[in-house]
Amino acid sequence: MPEILQYTFMQKAFIVGLLVGGLCPSIGIFLVLRRFSMVGETLAHVSLAGVLLGILWGISPLPFALLVSVLVVFVLEKLRSVFKNYAELSLAIIMSAGLGLAVVLMGITNASDTSISGLLFGSIITLSNEDILMIGLLSFISIFVIIYYYREFFLLTFDEEGARLTGIAVDRYNYLLLILTAMVIAIGLRIVGALLVSSLMVVPVATSLLLSRGFKQTLLYAVIFGILAVLVGLIASFYLGLAPGGAIVLSSVILFLILLLGKRIRP
Amino acid sequence: MKEKILHLDNVTFAYPGNTPILEDIELEIYRGDFFVILGPNGSAKTTLLKIMLGLLKPQKGTLKIYKSGIASPHMGYLPQKASFNQGFPATVREVLEMTSKKAALGNNDQYPQINAILEKVELQEKSNSLLGTLSGGQLQRVFLARALLNNPQILFLDEPVNNLDIQAQNELYKLLHNLHQEGLTIITVTHDPDSILNYASRLLYVDKKKITEVTKENWGVV
Lengths: 267, 222
Description:
The complex is a heterodimer of chains A (about 270) and B (about 220).
Chain A: H1 8-33, H2 37-57, H3 61-82, H4 87-109, H5 113-121, H6 129-148, H7 150-158, H8 160-165, H9 170-192, H10 199-211, H11 215-240, H12 244-265
Chain B: E1 4-13, E2 22-30, E3 34-38, H1 45-53, E4 60-65, E5 75-78, H2 92-99, H3 101-104, H4 111-120, H5 136-148, E6 154-158, H6 166-181, E7 185-189, E8 202-207, E9 210-214
Parallel strand pairs in B: 3-7, 3-8, 5-6, 6-7
Antiparallel strand pairs in B: 1-2, 1-4, 8-9
């Protein structure tokens, strides 16, 4: 067995990393194509505040962060209906509130620099068995929902009015998509970090769009690129002592640049 | 006796915070109508169409759809300007397969219907092309194909020949004429009626919140 796999914490990191690498772009594709790329970023900041609140009140941070993000999804949709013509304004407001609260809570909780840095930029050594169980459960639910409602998400993303006419309850699936986003962020938060998890929802999709020959293929490639970025990032972080979140996201950006250059040279 | 298929009963509609743009509309559509809605720009033609489709809810009055034995009457709709993202990375066939619920669930029985519709709109050769690579006229036909899936009871079209060159316009009219001959009820909005008058069975003029049904003969007078 290679050295990297002899450590339990690396085995856990690979399990979670592969789930995160596959799930983030599976949701990300719908967000990117609906021009909701910033939703991931916003919910990640809110999750960060949720985790810190959980630590402060002594509640299991991951489920609590998820609960807070899901509640915020409803606030977000409400705000979006208030600022109909400025969709991104509601995102900016929620993101500011989430980050502001997180910074204040960091001071109050007296959390150590290591745990704060782990939350922001990801950590592979702090994954507990409870985390793995929770992440496994959330991943299972997310994968099931994405497969089961694939058609609804496709039509909703393609053309909302047309989806409504085919009998799809557009508002309900909008909420479902955002709740799924919150779930996937909660899954990715521990390993990639709050500041970087949403990149994994966007960059592999952008890479995949460069090769696009159809929707199914774009989704498949995005998942492959997401998983590849996680694998390369984790290996690099282990051998070079890099922050895992940063290494993973940089790998996915490098992959994007390679394909972009390749496309320029051989369009 | 003609079979009623749609009824707008005393409908008044206003967009939120505005005064009504349609008032006390009373309108009946019959099976087999080729119904053309005319009127100047901004006269609420599209709004009227969307009320008939159930996409907009009137403040007053009701929309009644008569099912005539069909469990869930399906409405085909070709929007004026498809609101989809031009860079959406799907092929023509993927859009149609996803629209057809059975095909999306992997039911192969639906493929002949999809192929037949692709043939009808002359897009067989483009079935595996990405939407972003199609011309305006071809995209229009993709949306028409989507509207024709699932055997619609009524086909609604909003300014279907906008952005089409003369040849594409004529091809579309010919196709609509054939569909009408096959028994499909068609309701279409246009601000440029000259070319469609030959095919229409009924004409409706919308202006100043009201509707007036006109005959082909007195259309010039209106």
